[in-house]
Amino acid sequence: MEMEKFQYDNKIVRMFFWATVVWGVTAFLVGLTIALQLPAPVFNFGTSWLTFGRLRPLHTNAAIFAFVGNGIFMGYYYSAQRLLKARNFSDTLSKIHFWGWNAIIVSAALTLPAGITTAKEYAELEWPIDIAIALVWVVWGVNMMGTILKRREKHLYVAIWFYIATFVTVAMLHIVNSFEVPVSFWKSYSLYAGVQDALVQWWYGHNAVAFFLTTPYLGLMYYYLPKAAQRPVYSYRLSVIHFWSLIFLYIWAGPHHLLYSSTPDWAQTLGTVFSIMLIAPSWGGMLNGLLTLRGAWDRVRQDPILKFMVVAVSAYGMSTFEGPMMSLKNYNAITHFTDYTIAHVHVGALGWNGLLTFGMLYWLAPRLWNTKLYSVKLANIHFWLATLGIIFYVIPMYWTGITQALLWKQFTPEGMLVYPNFLETVLQLVPMYWTRAFGGTLYLTGALIMVYNLIKTAKAGEPTPDEEVEAAPLQPSTPDEKEDHKHRWLEKRPVLFLAATLLAVAIGGIAEFVPMFVVKSNIATISTVTPYSPLELEGRDIYIKEGCFNCHSQMIRPFRSETERYGEYSKAGEYVYDHPFLWGSKRTGPDLHREGVGKLRKPDAWHYNHMENPRSMSPGSIMPVYPWLLENTNDYKHLEKKISVMRTLGVPYPEGYEAQALDDLKQQADEIVQNLKASGINTSWDKEIVALIAYLQKLGTGLDPKQGD
Amino acid sequence: MGKASNKLIEHDFDGIQEYDNDLPGWWKALFLITVIFSIIYVPYYHLAGDLQEDEYAKETGTYEEHSSERSAFTSYSSPYSGEVELTPALIDELEQVLDAPFDEQLMRSMSKADADQLEKLKAAFPDVYEAYASGGAPEPAPAATETAAEDAPAEDVEVLTDAASLAAGKKIWDTQCFTCHLNDGGGSIGPNMTDNYWIHGGDMASIIHIINVGVPAKGMIPWSTTLTAEEIHQVASYIQAELVGSTPAVAKDPQGELYDG
After folding, report:
1. Do A599 and B148 touch (CB under 8 A)?
2. Residue A562: predicted pLDDT
């Protein structure tokens, strides 16, 4: 048979290689900064660009999309060409992919600290960037499918299945969750409101974990682990079963982020049971990784690359067991809103994604520069620093989470909260926050040692030129071809495979969204819930801009310990005008859903002083200072547009209200200015703080309208 | 673990081979168990068990059959506040939901009401108010809705003068009250506590009552869920014995009426 000569593109792999390294260090550094901000608010540096509320999304985006994202593409471009025996479909598309993706990351690094955000977790980037993400993602998809179609390998290897599932599903998730109506170039409102927005967001958020942090990395594991171990994959049949069951089941599990919330019970139940059913499919991946090492365990002792991979796969196994446990309602009642979740995600992020990426980097470097790794010893030191770093990170955070949950729930024999002041429960955690920052420092130090090691390796070698290879062209299939397994039939048909994958991942979403959007009884209307006034709407946008939702939930769960502390538990009907929803996922500070009513309501002057310096009103508070809110003026130039966009989205502002909105805003602002004046504070109607106070005082008035006046 | 035949599949991808091993038996069993768990879980919660509203109602002692079908208004656990038009049907519903006679519920509302609300309730239900004011205190609310005994303005209450009580009162003042009234009592967000002018009355009983129920409209928190009756007595004593008559660094202008008790 005539052999075809062609080349593998190594340059694109090297480009993604360095991007992974640079963004990895960036993500760890931002992570360490926000870890220090919790025990020591001084690390917020008193400037709006560096406060926790704005840096936390930067950290998560940098870790997920910059570090892991570039890691996926690095690993993909190296492995896919070789598994398909074909050069990438188009070098131009590869380059557009690289520069486009990294330009998106740079835009994220600029817009998030500036307070430009949609407030939806891991989807914070505003609409122009959302469009860019969709386009660049499709560039990757076209480049991948093009390569697959011109492959010289008849069947698709399991790694490729996972790459295809990643492409299809992330495209679907990103597009559906990003439907938003622009107000201006850097501002939009989510198409969905309240409970529906929450359901779509956590369908997305959960599956960002599934299809950005899990499936592509399983694909990478299936290439790099057997390569590094030089052992066959344990079980092909397990690959088939766990691939299909994983992608089909994963998509349903999103509502486990909304247990005990205002989401209807049926949706919560789906979230729980599909999470439980995910244990075995997830562990299938872990098993195929660990059992592949049979016969190679002696080498694990010497080879730091295998060490990284073994701990990575074990961390994957741990977090995919823990996730389903956290989806049980009784356990979730303790872990949710606490640092427990933070520990959980960092077992996955630092352990599974981080360590597997490090393993790949060390494996690839000698091959990309045609040399030996500069120092195996330094790689070993890195391994131990990273592993210890994870331990020093997650153990205090598990401890913190359970401690705080128990403090929240503690009652005296007389039936009163033992810690009615939320701050008391926070101050207990400060020593653990320092320990966590220490763990993060170890992890970062290890990564810096790796950077040195990789640079030295690259300098010692020569960049490998595009590899010359040859392979036989693909022979057309014949109908009576005998296959060892039935699934092989599908592996020869990439387009059909892609369609089957899309079908598998679409079912769960459709099954949850259709009833949620169609059946009215899911969200009982409450007649006293009114739309935000113009000033409150603008104040809400400041709340979003400052990222308040990163530390404050707006979701009082139906527990006595929460209703005693915050007031009546939250009802679905209270959120019908919330585009986007702001339930939050972590309570570093107290819940704010009833901040404007009952015993939680505070005078305007309290909020004014508290935003200027939280410690003046709550001694010991770890909240950052927000003095710029007292200084910044708002020109309200988008107010009319905001009102009309909200009306488009179904908020019942009367026709023509745009013309009156600014007058109403001024009137409400003047009342607050007068209130503040009575407490000896002089300010003007157009300061940001005035709008924010109006919004905070509105919270909770839906059920308790008279208190708001 | 299932038998691993370790038969290699005759094909490789870039040098990676795969075994044709069967799935481990315990893995298959695990998958099956999670599926069975899920099949049982759904009817367990949705037919036999408690959904979250019922769970909450049981936790707070307001449970009754079909309570999860209650409307938004009735599931809102505040006692009647005088704001909604009272119909016989509503009285029935309230009695059923809270499982207590309506008069008793009203008294409980009165004991929790702020000054404005109390006025409204008094006007609407003079008879009940009289019974309430003359000490016909409501029975304790069922189970968890019970909060600390709340003192209505009534009989005179002694000012505690022993050092321990005043020290305890000062500690509460310096950690809780100072944010609005300042450490020296001069007042900022809240009124001046050093002059002898009072918006809601300067006798001990009135001070204790206001600390208990707060003045939410003006930002004063109802402290009855945070402080015990004893603690409230201590801090009220600290106000009367130590703050009133002292000279703060900056004094807010007097508000209310001079008390000459």
Report:
1. no
2. 94
Q: Which residue of B has its CA nearest to A606?
A: B189
Q: Which of B37, B216, B228 sits opposite A276 (nearest CB)?
A: B37
Among A106, A115, A123, residue whose Cα is nearest residue A55: A115
Cα A180 to Cα A182: distance, rounded to the nearest angstrom: 6
The domain segmentation of chain B, as residue ranges, is 1-59, 100-146, 163-258
Alpha-carbon gap: B55 to the closest alpha carbon of chain A (Å): 8
Rounded alpha-carbon distances, angstroms, from residue A539 to A229, A514, A645: 57, 33, 17
Q: Find tokens 């938003």 and name the residue.
A: A180
For B148-201, what is each residue's pLDDT tens digit?
A: 344 444 567 888 989 999 999 999 998 888 878 888 898 878 889 998 899 888
Cα A40 to Cα A33, A129, A449, distances in angstroms: 10, 33, 27
For residue A558, give the amino acid letter.
P
Q: Which CATH number fits domain B163-258: 1.10.1670.10, 3.40.120.10, 1.20.1250.20, 1.10.760.10?
A: 1.10.760.10
Domains of chain A: residue spans and CATH: 4-472+484-510 (1.20.210.10), 534-708 (1.10.760.10)
Q: Report yes or no: A620 at the B interface, CB cutoff 8 Å.
A: no
User: In the structure encoding, which two tokens stand for residue A101, read together?
Assistant: 């993706």
Helix crossing, A69-84 with A215-229: angle to 10°?
60
Q: Is A494 on the interface with B (CB under 8 A)?
A: no
Distances, alpha carbon A521 to alpha carbons A525, A526, A569, in Å:
9, 12, 18
Q: Do A235 and B214 touch (CB under 8 A)?
A: no
- B221/chain A closest Cα distance in angstroms: 5
Residue B93 — pLDDT band, cuts 50, 70, 90? low
Model confidence pLDDT, tens digit, residues A538-592? 999 999 999 999 999 999 999 999 998 998 999 999 999 999 999 999 999 999 9
Residue pair A242/A214 in contact by the 8 Å Cβ criterion: no
Closest partner residue to B219 (CB to CB) among A232, A564, A601 is A601
Q: Do B76 and A703 touch (CB under 8 A)?
A: yes
Which residues in chain A have Cβ-Cβ distances shorter than 8 Å to B77? 563, 568
Closest CA to A224 of A165, A170, A157, A284: A157
CB pairs under 8 A between A and B: 172
Phi/psi of residue B163, each to 5°? -60, -40
Q: Report the greatest alpha carbon distance in chain A.
A: 92
Nearest to residue A270, comparing CAs of A517, A504, A501, A515?
A: A515
Angle at A355 between CA A349 and CA A356, to 5 degrees: 100
- The CA distance from A189 to A181, in Å, is 5
Across the interface, do B216 and A236 touch by the CB < 8 Å criterion? Answer: no
A600–chain B nearest CA distance, Å? 7
The verdict on pTM exceeding 0.90 is no
Identify the residue among A156, A224, A236, A522 best suited for mutation to test binding to B, counting B beta carbons within 10 A and taking the highest: A236
**Closest residue, chain A, to B113 (C-alpha):** A598
A74 to chain B, any CB pair closer than 8 A? The answer is no
**Average pLDDT rounded to a whole number, residues A164-171:** 97
Q: What are the structure tokens assigned to A392, written together?
A: 């020093």
* Three-point CA angle A547, A553, A555, nearest 5°: 145
Instruction: Note the ipTM here.
Output: 0.91
Cβ within 8 Å, pair B52-A558: yes
The nearest CA of chain B is from the CA of A111 a distance in Å of: 36
Query: Is residue B5 within 8 Å of residue B26, measured between CB atoms?
Result: no
> What percent of chain A clears pLDDT 90, i.e. is strictly above it?
87
If residue A6 lies in a helix (H) or strand (E), which one and from where to where? strand A4-8
Gap between the Cα atoms of A235 and A662, Å rounded = 67
